[in-house]
Amino acid sequence: MDGQWAIEYTKVLIGDKSKGVGGVHTGLWINADSNLPIRMELKGYDVTGTTIAHDETDDYAFLPNTAANRENLGAPIPAGFKQVQDPHSGMPVN
Prior knowledge:
The chain is mainly beta. It has one helix and six strands, in the order E-E-E-E-H-E-E. The protein has one helix spanning 67-71; strands spanning 6-13, 24-31, 37-45, 52-59, 84-85, 92-93. The longest helix has 5 residues, at 67-71. The model has no long low-confidence stretch (mean pLDDT 86).
């Protein structure tokens, strides 16, 4: 997908015409190397299952994993708070 090796996950919920409920088809594509999401699509179908009532596509992009980009992930600790260690990893938690 978009020049990336991808794995597609699909979830389909079948509608129930007797209850007036349409179906939903969700697709998620992740990068096969990084396991980061590339795209998610959601299509909601009407009760007949033939007409798309809702269609949404979200594309994701990520900055390269560089020291400069990682530095921007930290948040300043507000006055009155202190930095503590994560009990699971031993890493500082902001």
